[in-house]
Structures are given as C-alpha cells and as structure tokens.
Amino acid sequence: MNKKHIKIIEDYSNIKGRSLWVDARRRLFQNKAAVVSLFLIFLIAFLSFFGPFFLKYSFSDTDWNSIYYPPSLNNGHFLGTDGNGRDLLVRILYGGRLSLTIGILATLVSVFIGVIYGTIAGYFGGKLDIFMMRVVEILYAMPYLIFVILLMVVFGRNIYFLFIAIGAVEWLTMARIVRGQTISLKEKEFIETSKALGQSNFMIIWKHIIPNLAGPIVVYITLMVPSVIILESFLSFLGLGVQEPLTSWGVLISEGAREMETAWWLLIFPGIFMTITLASLNFIGDGLRDAIDPKEY
Amino acid sequence: MQSTQKNIKNNNLLININKLNVFFNTPEGLSHVVKDVNFNVKKGTCLGVVGESGSGKTQTFFSITGLLAKNGYAEGEANFKNYNLITCDDEIRRGFLGKSIGFIFQDPMTSLTPHLKIGDQLAEIAIYHKKITKSQALQRAAEVMDVVKLPNNRDIINSYPHELSGGMKQRIMIAISLMCEPDLIIADEPTTALDVTTQAEILNIFNELKNNLNIGLVLISHNIGVIAETSNEVLVMKNGQILENGNTHEVLTKPKNDYTKHLLSCIPPWIGN
Known about the structure:
The complex is a heterodimer.
Chain A: H1 3-14, H2 20-29, H3 32-50, H4 88-124, H5 126-141, H6 144-155, H7 159-186, H8 189-196, H9 201-237, H10 249-258, H11 265-292
Helix pairs in contact in A: 2-11, 3-4, 3-11, 4-5, 4-7, 4-9, 4-10, 4-11, 5-7, 6-7, 7-9, 8-9, 9-10, 9-11, 10-11
Chain B: H1 2-11, E1 13-26, E2 29-42, E3 46-51, H2 57-65, E4 72-80, E5 83-84, H3 90-96, E6 101-104, H4 118-130, H5 134-147, H6 153-157, H7 166-178, E7 184-188, H8 196-212, E8 216-221, H9 224-230, E9 233-238, E10 241-247, H10 248-253, H11 258-265
Parallel strand pairs in B: 3-8, 3-9, 6-7, 7-8
Antiparallel strand pairs in B: 1-2, 1-4, 4-5, 9-10
C-alpha cells in the first residue's frame, strides 16, 4: 500500500455518512408533499400525547350543563360535547393516542413477522415454501374475527394484546407480498454473484434481499396503518377492543355517525383528524418509496 | 531438462477436473449435459473454453462452484487444495468461493446489488472471508481498483452501481473477485456484454492478472478471438464433451477435430488469423 491509497482512505473516512439511509432522507426532504405530511403527522402525534395536559377537561369528565353542546369558544368546549357532556377535543386527542399507537405497533408486529416469514419461504423455496404458504392459506381461510376473539380469550382483554392480535392477523398479506418479491429477486444476477462469492444464506437475505424489498414494504406499511386503525374501530365496536370511557378515532367516528343528524360535530371533527392522518401517511409512503430507490434523484 | 519442466508444471497445478459429469432432472427424464470431462488449470496460465450455446461450458464450472440449478447434480472429481469440490461440504466450498476462487459473470449491469455503494460491495466480501475491519477492507479495495485500472477510486468507492458504465462495472466485478487474493478466477463470458474497445481493455487486465499475480484463469467464451488473445490452452466443447484440448496456438492453427475446423471457418476471412 502506498501513500496514495492511504490518502484515498483518509478522504473516504472524511466523507463517510452518505449511507443509503442518509441519501434516502435527503431525497425525502426534497419531496414537498412528504415534508408537509411528516409535519402534520408529527403535529397530530404531539397534540395527542401532550395536548390533553393543557385542556381543562379530562376525557371522562361529564359536564352536565352542556350536553350535545355545539362547538364554541365560550365555555372551553372548542369542538363541542357528546351526549354525555364529555369534551370532544380531549376525546379526539385521547383517541389519537390510541389509534396511532395501535396503527404503528400492530403494523410493526405484522411487518416483522411477515418479512421474516416471507423471505425464508421465498428464498429457500421448494417443500419448505409449499409448507409455509399452505400455513398462511389456512390462516387466511380462518375468519380472523374468531382468531382475534380466541387470542383475546386466551391472553385476556388487555390493550397490548390487541396490538399483537391485529398484527398477527395482518402479517399474512405482508408475508405473501414479501415472498413474491423475494422469489423474483433471488433469480437476479447479483444474488448469484453473492453466492459465487461464498456468502452465507443469512448474509444474502439480510444484505441483498431485504434492502431491495424496502420499496414494496414501505408502500404496504402506509396502506396497512389505515386498515389497522379501521380494524381496531371495528373490534372496539364489537366490544373486543377499547372500552369506554377510553376511546379511539374509529369508536368516535362510529358513534358520531349514529348521531350525525342531531350533532354533526361528533362525526366531522374525528373524521377530519383521521382523514388528515391517513392522507399524510399515504404521501409519506409515496415519498419514502421514491427516496429509498437510489436511482431516483 | 524436460522432466524438470514437468515437475514445475505439476507444482503449478491448481485444479484438476477428473471424469466430471453433470445431470439435470427434467420432466422428459434425466439430461446428461456434461460428459466425462477431464482437464487441469495451472497457476499463471489461462484456460480458454469455447463452444456453442448449450455445449455445457458454463454448467461445467457451475458444478465446481456449487451454482447448479436445484434440479441439477454433478458426479466426478474437481480437486482443489486437497478437497473434492464436487463432494465436499457446502461450508468448505463456500470458504473457497470468493476467497480462493473468484467468479465473474457475463452481465456486469445486473451483477452488482443496486442499493449498496461500490465501496461497501468490495469491502463486504473481504470482511466476510478475511475477518478484517471495514477500513482495512477499504484500503484493500483501493489497491485492487488500481490493479483493474479504475481512476478516481474515491469517487467510485462512493457511487452506486447505476452511476457507472458497463466497462467500469465489469472492472468492479474483477476487483471484487481479486479482494481476497484468489488463486483461480473463472470468468464466464466476461466480455460478451461489452463493446469491442472495452473488451480489449478487460482482456489486457486478464493478461496482467495471470502474468503479474500468477493467477490461474478460466475464460469461458464463444468468441474465438477473445480466447486466442488471452489463453495459453484451449478446450473445445460440444454437447457436453471435450472435442479438442491443447495449446491454443496449435489448436487454432492445426485443428484436428472437424468441429474445430468448422468453428474456425466461421471466422470471416477479413479478420485474419
């Protein structure tokens, strides 16, 4: 090794940090829609987690003087009250905490299971793949409601098990998508090259397959978070999810829909919050998909 | 005098292929694609393998490196450093691949992982096989990039595969196979996807590798011109059999086999000898 090489390495270590993720972040921040959406999501998350501390009502307080009170600035019920006289703004913020947490945690659970399961089935193929995919199909065929009810019965009605139960249902589609992508990726020449260079299967999956799956995974995550939020509201409606007086956006909207002719604000305001969140997630997903692909500049 | 030369030649023996057969299970029955192939590769020499598509030239070397498709299997001997690569454990073979045996594929455009930087891809293989740190691996990367004559190492180390031209990518592929100081490099049609000027540069690099670094080279090609320029010995293959085997100059000037004569007569006369 000569001085020139040492110089090259010093230069290289000086400009380190332009990894795939740093590049991806830079490209994401060039996308205006994604930046605005990120800001909105963080704003809603921040308000949900810290907002209630600055409001004068708690989510379960009943204000007997103002039942079905429309939105006004006079008595502190900025977004009105519901049929039990509870402040809607506080309830939306509390619901946001729950919906966002469930949406993100359950999605992470399902992505974690789905990606591992799908890459193993797709990469190794053969009998293992056939067996693993038949298991997925059997679980698909099982009504997921019964599955969730079973899980809740076995583990008890705990809100954390709701995350796991939803994640355990949602991973099936993820596993299928990941398996399909893995099968097409493993035929690519760069995987063959890695094999010819003597790399182990684990390293090939970890360094050459999963990063190339990032695009479809991210897009699917942004579609999954909304569907998880909706699934949670459905389970809560059946009495399997969140219980009164706790609430979530899905619960608020389904209650608001029943009373929309008399008290429109009970439907409109939770709806606005949910719509903004879901639309932002979609824009972030779009931006991330473009940002992760190094060919996009 | 002759006997001493033979001794030196035997010490130079790198890989010995003995009665190698490759089969594929197909819905129509067993297909015998490589039939009783024998040959040797010596250090510092280049073995050219010519033949038409489907003659089994690629599958011969895929069987040695364990890259056969799932329905294929091989029988016979491929003796490399006291191991038979056909029958040995996957773990042992993987230890050789990338470390002692480099493999270069036909299409450089798709052989590099699209989301990893060139530097990372070069370093990865040395970190894996030699258990060295990343900065050591990058130093080695800068060295091998000089060997394959890539200027501006720093810029290239920091770029993604899609930012490089085809010739540069093929040089990177050669550099990757050089990272762990291999004894044998198998190049499967390394210049087919490149234009003629780039092809000449790549062949020059191969010539330097074999002369300066004493690497044994296997050059698989259907282009006799490429073989004539680089290889010392040549195998002519057809239907999974070796039709002719010997010194490149002799085979190309005085072909004994009809098929070889036929192949040579396919070269347009204005290209010359």
